[in-house]
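Q: Sequence in, structure out?
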Amino acid sequence: MKTFTYQANPARVVFGAGALAELPREIERLGARRALVLCTPEQAASAQQVADLLGDRAAGLFAKAVMHVPIETAREAREEARRLGADCAVAIGGGSTTGLGKAIALESGLPILAIPTTYAGSEMTSIYGITEAGVKKTGRDAKVLPRTVIYDPELTRTLPLSMTITSALNAIAHAAEGLYAHDGNPIIGLMAEEGIRASAAAMAPLMFDTQNIDARSDALYGAWLCGTVLGSVAMGLHHKLCHTLGGSFNLPHAETHTVVLPHALAYNAPQAPEAMARIARALRASEAAPGTSGAAPGAADAPQRLFELAKRMGAPTSLQAIGMPAAGLDRVADLAVQNPYPNPRPLERAALRAMLQRAFDGEPPQS
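A: Exactly. Output:
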């Protein structure tokens, strides 16, 4: 066994159908008295439910979270928290809302309690991202890691099927890159493989019944594991590309990860055969799970399996389909090689540009 270092991130997780009812007690455990509730405009009703549950512990509601956390929104939210005298933030929603909570915590140190309603996984990481002047800047800081996470599968039942699938594939991306991260370790590897299996296994049952609470629970469990992987190791090409695409061209987060993942894995596959074998093994295990639709046709390798899984589930498979302008591909390729970072395969501008073209056109991945 190779030498490794494992550092667990501190986190309290409350998991189960109906777990939202534990919110008042969890706020009390934090020692907080005035919670600012955060959400996107679309989830204002859910946020109001949270505020009502908190009663006089709710300081107010900020319903302006958006993708990629524009710095202007972050500043406005910080000012609102200060104005209301909030001593914690409750983020209900997906990665956009959790990201906004992190932006508040980065400057103020306010503790965050996260209530995920998608499978983004951001709630399990100390990674933050803020977009300024069309560039998304990311970093890590322990103070932005949510202190408590409440996973309630009941809250994901209303997540539309299309978002369910892309969000679960986004979760798989976190775990897939963790399997070839230069600072990975055996524990993270186990979490990654199980997270991929659980996330993939949940998809087929939800295609037939979006209210299937067992499948919703599996997807949320998978997201928890995949998010833990994301928060524990360095990310490579896939996440760097997605941050550039999302921040520079305002592409939808989960859909971008869905499209890019098979191509980024194919790029790295020659230098990461063990990781690819484990990803493929997890996907095969998910296909054999009770309630799924059986084995996928063909596709023995991990990148191709993920590409076919996305197609089979009706998810987007081209950057063009999610709003990427063709004229921006050269800029993405340039940005991808500007600042070197650990990745199994060296970053070669020409090869990356060709890979981006295949992703733009919706062609199958190619090593």
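The domain at 161-361 is CATH 1.20.1090.10 (Dehydroquinate synthase-like, alpha domain).
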